[in-house]
Amino acid sequence: MTKANxxxxxxxxWKKSLWLxxxxxxxxTSGCWDRRELENLAVVLGMGLNHTPGGEGYEVSFQxxxxxxxxxPGVSSGGGEKMRPFWILRSSGPTVFEAIRNATFQxxxxxxxxxxxxxxxxxxxxxxxxxxxxxxxIRDHEPRLSLWLxxTAEDPVQIFDASAGLEMVSSQAISDxxxxxxxxxxxxxxxxxxxxxxxxxxxTANTLPVIxxxxxxxxxxxxxxxxxxxxxxxxxxxxxxxxxxxxLWVLGEVQGGVITFDVPGKKGKATxxxxxxxxxxxxxxxxxxxxxxxxxxxxxxxxxxxxxTDLSTPDQFKKLETRQAEVIKGEIEAALAKARxxxxxxxxxxxxxxxxxxxxxxxxxxxxxxxxxxxTVEIKVKAVLVELGLTTRPVLD
Amino acid sequence: xxxxxxxKLRLAHQRKKTPVSRSRRDLSPNLxxxxxxxxxxxxxxxxxxxxxxxLGPRPGSAGALIYIDxxxxxxxxxxxxxxxLLNEGNWGxxxxxxxLLGYVAQSILAVGEMQTETELRxxxxxxxxxxxxxxxxxxxxxxxxxxxxxxxxxxxxxxAEQIIQGPHEGFTENLRTNTALLRRKIATAGxxxxxxxxxxxxxxxxxxxxxxxxxxxxxxEEVRLRLKRINIDYILDANYLQExxxxxxxxxxxxxTFTERPDVVAAKLLEGRVAIFVDGTPVVNTVPAxxxxxxxxxxxxxxxxxxxxxIRWFRYLSFSLAxxxxxxxxxxxxxxxELIPTPLMITLKTATEGTPFPLAIEVVMMGLVFEIxxxxxxxxxxxxxxxxxxxxALVIGEAxxxxxxxxxxTIIVIALTAITTFVVPGLLGPGIFLRLIYTILGxxxxxxxxxxxxxxxxxxxxxxRSFGVPYLAPLxxxxxxxxxxxxxxxxxxxxxxxxxxxxxxxxxxxPFGFAVDEEEKGEDGHDKG
Amino acid sequence: xxxLIVLVxxxxxxxxxxxxxxxxxxxxxxxxxxxxxxxxxxxxxxxxGVELPYVESVWLDLFTGLKKGL
Amino acid sequence: MDKERISPRxxxxxxxxxxxxxxxxxxxxxxxxxxxxxxxxxxxGQGLGFAYxxxxxxxRHPGKTLFEIHEIVYGPLFGxxxxxxxxxxxxxxxxxxxxxxxxxxxxxxxxxxPDLALLIPWVIIVVYGCRRGIEVIARSNEPLxxxxxxxxxxxxxxxxxIFERENLLPxxxxxxxxxxxxSLGIAVFPFGQNVLFLMLLPKVNQPQKVMGAVFRGMVxxxxxxxxxxxxxxxxxxxxxxxxxxxxYEFYRMINIGEVLTRLELIPLLNFLTxxxxxxxxxxxxxxxxxxxLFNLRAVQPLFFPLGILILLLTRQIYPSISLxxxxxxxxxxxxxxxxxxxxxxxxxxxxxxxxxxxxxxxS
Lengths: 397, 529, 70, 363
Hints:
The structure holds 4 protein chains of 4 kinds. The longest helix of chain A is centred in the C-terminal third of the chain and has 29 residues, at about 315-340. Chain A has 2 domains: about 40-70 and about 85-240, no CATH class; about 240-395, GMP Synthetase, Chain A, domain 3 (2-Layer Sandwich). Chain A is of the alpha/beta class. Helix content of chain A is about 35%, strand content about 30%. The N and C termini of chain A lie far apart (about 95 Å). Chain A has 13 helices and 14 strands. Chain A has helices at about 5-30, 65-70, 95-100, 125-130, 130-140, 155-160, 170-180, 190-200, 240-250, 315-340, 350-355, 360-365, 370-375; strands spanning about 40-50, 60-65, 85-95, 110, 120, 150, 190, 205-215, 220-230, 235-240, 260, 270-285, 290-305, 375-385. Chain B has 3 domains: about 30-145, no CATH class; about 175-290, no CATH class; about 305-470, no CATH class. Chain B is built from 16 helices and 12 strands. In chain B, the strands form 3 sheets. In chain B, strands 1-2-4-5-3 form a 5-stranded antiparallel beta sheet, with helices on both faces. Chain B has a 5-stranded antiparallel beta sheet with strand order 6-7-9-10-8, sandwiched between helices. A two-stranded antiparallel ribbon of chain B has the order 11-12. In chain B, α11 packs across α16 (about 430-465). Chain B is elongated and about 105 Å long. Chain C has one domain (about 1-70). Chain C is about 85% helix and about 0% strand. By secondary structure, chain C is mostly helical. The interface between A and B is large, with 38 and 40 residues.
């Protein structure tokens, strides 16, 4: 290190400066192709997918945040009429991608899809097959796999147009709501990633939650109701909320919600709050016949009663538990019946078989619909009541 | 091309020869001749005091006492030099001495340190260093009496290196005071000082200090060698030396550490480092220097280990923030918006809505404004400094945001970096530079640009050595044993080994554990600073 | 574009060569110049839009050819 | 130049980053996707076998680089020919890795930025690093490897909430031939490339520890890759097959409480550093090789031209990623096998045929 003589040092000096120069050249020549300033972005929070009125192509609608409107709404720019904090835009094209790019003709700013949270798909599109419609969202680097997928019978714009309640933007509200599905457990929220996972499982059918708008005190509001069944990639039918919960029981995804039924032998109802549930599904193949065993375990507590009897005694509890198990079993059976009707394996029995008995699956997969319809299903529900709330018996009994 | 090269080589060759040695000139036996010589050499400076006097038993010979006013301790000169010389009773026994100077030195003067010189230049040197010169007619020699004494600053706590707990003393501009301060910390015979004079014209005293038995002898040799190689006109501060002897003169990063604290220097010596004192400055350099030393503060060792560890981690965090925060902000804001969580993204967007400049320019601009404000605040007299900060913070920041010139988040980021930069004062310069470069890179190529810059920095840092020790040690190369004082600050009793690459001649400080029966604590009060 | 490339290569040559000449590393200089010229040649070809084959497509063709041959 | 020495541990670290290199981003053997993490162990075994053979070569000719061994074994002319082949191998390996990274960056973040804008800064720092020498490369590699290991281990915790055991099933649903073929593909692609280290082994300061160091590095790298694949499969399931860059996609899925989300850039940059080391090693080795080929005394001046060559070749590696995927599937196993197993084996055989331990004059 020290042996560098004077001349060497001087040479070193200009060599060193050359490196810095190189660095700077590199900085200033390479430049900013992908730069997009925050303020020049149109942040899309929700997207809708529909067919163009004419037929062939797709119409994509966007819900774009109007950031300036979110900023301190009280002090908004002197007196001008208050705009809504979002902007809805439609554009169409032969493919989804082209439709999205065509939106550039209408938007002064570049559409930025990375933050979009929901994708609302019109049923007509779903009936024709989702793969061509969703390909862009999986392939492109901007949209995320954590996008929530929703079905609607209406024009997606109607959904975006609905009141957002406490939020600024309805897409945000929908996304927040879907994350709290466990308060009711009557919808099954599906992210794009989950959809793709199930699609790739071949035998398993997908389900997507259905959203629609309702009129409430003169205002439009969105509302979730039931579930669409996607067989392959096509919409084949719907499950009502109860059936949806039947499906959720089997998938072990019920993590809350309430269940109401008549108290056995008494006049009046009891509402139980579900705390946790879990399920075990075992699929066995004997002589190319499928036997499915579903075991569901539920822990719940008494949340509300309309009878005048004291339900807190152990044998009343026993009765409630049996009754609850029956109700749950009924829900599962209802879902199963619908699934058999559509020939759609929404429960993922095939997936289960695929994982545990791959050979059998490979043998049966080709004709899975028939095997699924003919499968014998044994349902066992074990319901446990663990809590009473703060009181033991009703105030007046 | 070749010609240019040749020319450069020749120039370099000539450069080597430049130190001209002036001709040697001896004192003459004639007093008057000597005095004229002195006056020639120093000019008719009013602070040159020549006090003629008669020396020796009657009739006595002519003599002169020469000193420079202001450099000597008048008390000493009057009481201990003049008084004995003028007291006739003193000459009683020296009736027949021939070597009058020798007699004076031996029996009369009450001065501790003195020496005889015959060469004019040496004498003048002594004079300029604060010695008093005694000349006697008839003798071609001079007596140099050490009567140094000038006004100096009292020992204070250094302003740039405040600590909360621990010793509050700092070095002064006086070399002797400084070495004494160090001796007070390390009372072992192993503490050696070596002195030399550097600077053609300033003749500044340089001292190197090391702890024999702990230090690597080769390191001391290397320091000596590098110091001797220096060929400089003047030295006014430690930094003059540092730019000469540092391993990587072009690097942004300092390969010497400096401090004004005796406790820090003591700790470094005890780790096996060498300290370089420069007379006239309170700053002391220690070598070899490592990057991680900048993140250690004396307070780390004066506080309980868990607290010290946490504080050290905050320091790492602060430095990374100081260097990277604006760059990441720019990269996220203008390239990787998808990485920002949605609500934050919308908030940011609302805040930047309508600002005219790209984010990178905004950040660089505000960063420059801040640096200028800081510099102005440092240079200006204190009352002005306050005005500056009020104007800077309130008017420029606030007004820029309300006027919509820059977004509020930019101001927040700049303010954050402004504060965090000062957490690691040793890397203030490199930090500001890196921040600027990274911000530009982040604005040009986003996170990829920052990564390129960081890899470049990493390679550069990894290629640095300070006196043979890799600058990034113990992180690259990883030395697990040394991480105890880098990743965390282990309890003092667990810091039982010195840094591997520096203190390897004597790696162990003390036996492991906190058993009291070994009374070795005196030597290892605390670690590095 | 081509002028820029030539300038860059010239700059690199000037950056490296004097040191080599000073130390009389003639062989190094030769190999260095050779490699540099190769680079220059290729970059000029690329810059002027000549279609050079892609390495992996060459290998692919070769291997599929071999497989067919076997 | 020749005084540079690296320690066995640094060698281990270099092997780790070289192996992880670009495979982590674009895995080979994707057909076996769901079982990749298991197949990895098989490949690791094979890879260790290859490495053992190559290291035997080094053991027979201690202190010699591969190119010097070539000249000893085949004589100057043929030796140089073989060396040239290997030079091409290093060049293509480095350029291939670089091309993959550029493709990744271009498809994910910098869609409109031209290749050159991404390549030139990269090549500049590669050359800068190479000029600083192998010691500096090894030193700066250490924190990078530690960071990568830290990230991979941290990912275990990051994906806990999206990891599903069901996704791992079914295990072993592949025919044996597919398992073997894919494991071979992996054995030659990340593991086999380590044949490059034959050029650097003489620089290790404790030659007796070389074998252990290389093996440790390969095993560690194998374990890390296997762990990462395990996580990726657990998170993505079968879907992973779909993606060109599954690891990237896997990090895109991370979502912890809607706050710690969209992390893909961090692993991307982290893996880029591994690739950076890999490319730097390729360039460095090429320079060392070229210097030995032409009996040069200095390596320094070669880095710039070689950097430019690798830059040019990167643009000419493949016209599109689809061709590269095809290449990985159809050609790479053979190509790698040729360089990682056949050539070293041939050299080893020849060396044995020439008889006795070679006692070359200390030149």
